[in-house]
C-alpha cells in the first residue's frame, strides 16, 4: 500500500489494470486474453525449436512416423503435467495474496450498518430452518386424526423433514459454489416456502409427506449458505463473535414455532370444510403461518448483493469492487463519515480452473481434504446423533412419564351389576372386569382409556359415542344396538355379538394415544422452554468465541454436555426431565456455534459451501439415526440412550483436539 492508501504491486503484472468509468482500476487478466496466443510451454523458444501445437496436445504431425508418435505423446503429456502443476502453484499463490488483501479491504470497509442489515436478513433464513424442525412434531397429534395415520406413518412423517434437509444441504451447498450464495439461497428458500404453502392445503397423507419432503430439501440449503455468505463480509476480529450471534435466529425460529402452535392449533374453531372431502383445520393454519419466515427472508434477500468473495474467486472483479465499495460507503455514512473515499483500486485475480487445487504445501489436496472432512464428520456425527436424539427422546420420555402417572390413577371395578341406568357423562381411565349391564343406555358421551373385560351387555343401547384408547375384551353383547358411534368391531377384541346391530358408524381413526388440549399445551410449553434455554449458551459462546478460541469452546462444551447426560438418570418426573432438557440445550449450543465457525474458516472460498453442505447433510443423517435409536428405548430403559449420548459426546470432545485452531486467521 502506498502513501495514498491504494493497493499496488509494481513487481507483479497481475495488478496491471485498466481505468474504469468511476476512475478505479481493475485487473486486466492478460493471461486469459493473451494476444500472442502462446502458452507457458512455448515461451522462450525460437522458431526452430517451436513445438507444433498439435504435438503439444499429443497429436503427431502428419509427416511423423509411428516410431516417433509414442515418444511425442509421452513428452506432451509430461509437459502438460508440468504446466498444470505450475498453474496450480500460481493459483495457490494468487489465493493466498487475495486472502490477505481481502482481509485488509474488509478492515477498511469497517463493521457497521451493512453487516447488521445482512445479519437480520440472513437471520430470517436461519429462523426458517429452525421453524422447519418443529412443524411436523407440533402438527402430528392433530394431523393423525385428519389423515388416520398409523404409528409407522407417524414415524415416517417425523423423519422425512431430516431426510429432505440432508438432500438439500448436499445439493444447495455444492450449487452455491457454482452460481453464487445469494442466488442459490433465493432458489432454496423459494422451494421451501412454495411447498410449505402447498402442504397446508393437501388432504392425503402421501401428498402431505411429499410436500414436507420437498420443503425440507429447500430449507436444507439455509445453514451451509447462510454462514458462508455472512462470513465473507466479516473481518477477522469480528467473525467468530458475529457468526455466533447469527446462531440465535435458529433459537428464535424454535420459539416462534412453539408460540404459534400454542396460539393456533388448540383453537379448533379456526377451521372450515367443504363437504366430507375437504377439511381445513387449525393445524393447517399453523403450517401456513410457519412459512412466513421463509417468505420474509426471500423478500429481504432481494435487496442484498452477492458475496464479493465469490465474485473474486470467479474472476468477476468489477462486480466485487462495486459491492465492497457499497459496503464501505454504507458503513461510513452510518458512522458519520460520508466524505471518506474507498481507496482500493486494484484487487488480486485468482487463476480460474475447474479442478480442485492443493490446499497447502507438502501434501496432496485430496489428502488434506480427506483429513479435514473426516475429522469434522466424526465431530458433527457425534454431536448430531446425541443432540437430535436426546431432543426427541426428552418429549417422548415426558409423554411416557405422563402415561405412567395417568395409569397410576386408573380406577378398577370388579363384578359390578348395573341395570336401567343412563350414562351421559364422560367415562375416563377406568377398568371394568366381570361386570353385568342390563338395559343400560350410553348416550352422548366420551370414553377415554376405558377397558371392559369379561363383561356382559344385554339389551343395552350405545348412541353418539366418541372414544379414545377404549376397548372391549372377551365381552358378550346380547340384543344390543350401536348407533352413530366409533365403537368399531376392531375395538371389540374376542367378543361375542348375539342379535346385536351397528348403524351409522362414525368415520374416523383408531387413536391409541391420549390427545387432549392439556397434553398439547404441555408439548408446546416444553419445546418453548427447551428452545429458550439455548439463549444463555448462545450469549456466552458469542462473547468468548474470539477470546478463548474455537477449539477450546468446542471441546469444553462437549465435555460439559457429556457430563450433563449422566444427570438424566435422576430424571424420574416431568419437572426433572424439563430441567435437564433445558440444561443440555443451553450447554450444547456452544458446540454447535464452534462447529459452524470452524467449518466456515477451514475451507477455501471456492469450496466453502460445498464442504459445509456435505457435513451438514451428514449431520441430518446422524439425526435420523439418533432419533431412531433413542425413541426405540422409550419405556424400556434409560441406560442405553444415556450411554450412547455420553459416549458420542466424549468422542466428539476428543476429536475436537485434532482440528486446527482458526482464530486470528484470514478467511482462506
UniProtKB/TrEMBL annotation:
Checking Pfam families in the record gives: LD_SV2, MFS_1, Sugar_tr
**Keywords in alphabetical order:** Cell projection, Cytoplasmic vesicle, Glycoprotein, Membrane, Neurotransmitter transport, Phosphoprotein, Synapse, Transmembrane, Transmembrane helix, Transport
In this protein, which residues make up the domain named Major facilitator superfamily (MFS) profile? 118-663
Q: Name one GO cellular component term.
A: synaptic vesicle membrane
Query: Which positions, given as ranges, span the membrane?
Result: 116-143, 155-173, 185-202, 209-230, 242-265, 285-304, 521-544, 576-598, 610-633, 639-657
NCBIfam families (alphabetical): synapt_SV2 (TIGR01299)
Query: Could you tell me what this protein is called?
Result: Synaptic vesicle glycoprotein 2A
Protein source organism:
Maylandia zebra (zebra mbuna)
Amino acid at each position: 500500500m502506498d502513501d495514498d492508501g491504494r493497493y499496488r504491486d509494481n513487481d507483479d503484472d497481475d495488478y496491471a489494470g485498466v481505468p474504469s468509468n468511476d476512475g478505479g482500476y481493475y485487473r486486466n487478466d492478460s493471461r486469459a486474453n493473451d494476444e500472442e496466443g502462446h502458452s507457458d510451454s512455448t515461451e522462450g523458444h525460437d522458431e526452430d525449436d517451436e513445438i507444433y501445437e498439435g504435438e503439444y496436445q499429443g497429436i503427431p504431425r502428419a509427416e511423423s512416423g509411428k516410431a516417433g508418435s509414442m515418444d511425442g505423446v509421452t513428452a506432451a503429456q509430461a509437459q502438460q503435467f508440468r504446466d498444470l502443476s505450475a498453474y496450480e502453484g500460481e493459483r495457490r499463490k494468487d489465493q493466498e495474496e487475495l486472502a490477505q488483501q481481502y482481509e485488509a479491504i474488509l478492515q477498511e470497509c469497517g463493521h457497521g450498518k451493512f453487516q447488521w442489515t445482512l445479519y437480520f436478513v440472513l437471520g430470517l433464513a436461519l429462523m426458517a430452518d429452525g421453524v422447519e424442525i418443529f412443524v411436523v412434531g407440533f402438527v402430528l397429534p392433530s394431523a393423525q386424526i385428519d389423515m388416520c395415520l398409523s404409528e409407522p406413518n407417524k414415524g415416517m412423517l417425523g423423519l422425512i423433514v431430516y431426510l429432505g434437509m440432508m438432500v438439500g444441504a448436499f445439493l444447495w451447498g455444492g450449487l452455491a459454489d457454482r452460481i453464487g450464495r445469494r442466488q442459490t439461497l433465493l432458489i432454496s428458500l423459494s422451494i421451501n416456502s412454495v411447498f410449505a404453502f402447498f402442504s397446508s392445503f393437501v388432504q392425503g397423507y402421501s401428498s402431505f409427506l411429499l410436500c414436507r419432503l420437498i420443503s425440507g430439501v429447500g430449507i436444507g440449503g439455509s445453514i451451509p449458505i447462510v454462514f458462508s455468505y455472512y462470513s465473507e463480509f466479516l473481518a477477522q476480529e469480528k467473525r467468530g463473535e458475529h457468526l455466533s450471534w447469527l446462531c440465535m435466529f435458529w433459537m428464535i425460529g424454535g420459539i416462534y414455532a412453539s408460540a404459534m402452535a400454542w396460539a393456533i392449533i388448540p383453537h379448533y374453531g379456526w377451521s372450515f370444510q367443504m363437504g366430507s372431502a375437504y377439511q381445513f383445520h387449525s393445524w393447517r393454519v399453523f403450517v401456513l403461518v410457519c412459512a412466513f419466515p421463509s417468505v420474509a427472508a426471500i423478500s429481504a434477500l432481494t435487496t442484498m448483493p452477492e458475496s464479493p468473495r465469490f465474485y473474486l474467486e470467479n474472476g468477476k472483479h468489477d462486480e466485487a469492487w462495486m459491492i465492497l465499495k457499497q459496503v464501505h460507503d454504507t458503513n461510513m455514512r452510518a458512522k458519520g463519515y460520508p466524505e471518506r473515499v474507498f481507496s482500493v483500486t486494484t484487487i488480486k485475480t485468482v487463476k480460474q480452473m475447474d479442478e480442485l487445487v492443493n490446499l497447502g504445501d507438502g501434501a496432496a489436496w485430496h489428502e488434506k481434504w480427506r483429513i479435514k472432512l473426516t475429522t469434522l464428520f466424526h465431530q458433527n456425527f457425534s454431536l448430531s446423533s446425541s443432540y437430535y436424539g436426546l431432543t426427541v427422546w426428552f418429549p417422548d420420555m415426558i409423554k411416557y412419564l405422563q402415561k405412567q402417572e395417568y395409569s397410576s390413577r386408573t380406577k378398577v371395578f370388579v363384578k359390578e351389576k348395573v341395570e336401567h341406568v343412563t350414562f351421559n357423562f364422560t367415562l375416563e381411565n377406568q377398568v371394568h372386569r366381570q361386570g353385568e349391564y342390563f338395559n343400560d343406555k350410553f348416550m352422548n358421551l366420551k370414553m377415554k382409556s376405558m377397558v371392559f373385560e369379561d363383561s356382559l351387555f344385554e339389551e343395552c343401547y350405545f348412541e353418539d359415542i366418541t372414544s379414545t384408547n377404549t376397548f372391549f375384551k372377551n365381552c358378550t353383547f346380547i340384543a344390543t344396538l350401536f348407533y352413530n358411534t366409533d365403537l368399531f368391531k376392531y375395538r371389540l377384541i374376542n367378543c361375542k355379538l348375539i342379535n346385536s346391530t351397528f348403524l351409522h358408524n362414525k368415520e374416523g381413526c383408531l387413536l391409541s394415544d391420549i390427545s387432549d388440549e392439556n397434553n398439547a399445551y404441555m408439548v408446546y410449553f416444553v419445546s418453548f422452554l427447551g428452545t429458550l434455554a439455548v439463549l444463555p449458551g448462545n450469549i456466552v459462546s458469542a462473547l468468548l468465541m474470539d477470546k478463548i478460541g474455537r477449539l477450546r469452546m468446542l471441546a469444553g462444551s462437549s465435555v460439559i454436555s457429556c457430563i450433563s447426560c449422566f444427570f438424566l438418570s435422576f430424571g424420574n418426573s416431568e419437572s426433572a426431565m424439563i430441567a435437564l432438557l433445558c440444561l443440555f440445550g443451553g450447554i450444547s449450543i456452544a458446540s454447535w456455534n464452534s462447529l459452524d465457525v470452524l467449518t466456515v474458516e477451514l475451507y477455501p472460498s471456492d469450496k466453502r459451501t460445498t464442504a459445509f453442505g456435505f457435513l451438514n447433510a451428514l449431520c441430518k443423517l446422524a439425526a435420523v439415526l439418533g432419533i431412531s435409536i433413542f425413541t426405540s428405548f422409550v419405556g424400556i430403559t434409560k441406560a442405553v440412550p444415556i450411554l450412547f449420548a455420553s459416549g458420542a459426546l466424549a468422542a466428539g470432545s476428543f476429536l475436537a483436539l485434532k482440528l486446527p485452531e482458526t482464530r486470528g486467521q484470514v478467511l482462506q
